[in-house]
């Protein structure tokens, strides 16, 4: 059930929603750049909250461990919630993807306007852990979107045979979310480890 092959096969089955997740995330990034002026104050306030958390973590006795614990649990809780809150017709995963994309787009754009080298920001601050963290989040959101689609199909399908097939598909899908959750957690452990050490050291340097 938890084999990497099972997970990979499930991803192949869910590849359409993975693509949708990626598109929504990219739309969010573009929106974060284009709407930097009208939404800048709100997005900056979100970044300010994150800075506040960062400052508190830096006061701990073991900064790297504190970062790891915070990043890991923050990402895992959000990712698992996004999968299962997709039951509400996939609305929450859509919002989550667009908002996270907007935060990244706005961060890169606003810092470039302040004279920060974008290439250095991306390579040092986003790329090391983002290579694993972003795909994990996109996968979680894709499962949430799939859950939403299945629920929407259940609402709009009246044929008894089709409804039975949907019931079977829904049961299989819910089983697949357990496998997905396991591997997403593994990916986020690695991402948190990188972000709390390599990314942290690179940014400080």
From TrEMBL:
One Pfam family recorded for the sequence: SpoIIM
Record keywords, A-Z: Membrane, Transmembrane, Transmembrane helix
InterPro entries, per the entry: SpoIIM-like
Membrane-spanning intervals of the chain: 16-37, 57-74, 81-106, 126-145, 180-203
Official protein name in the record: Stage II sporulation protein M
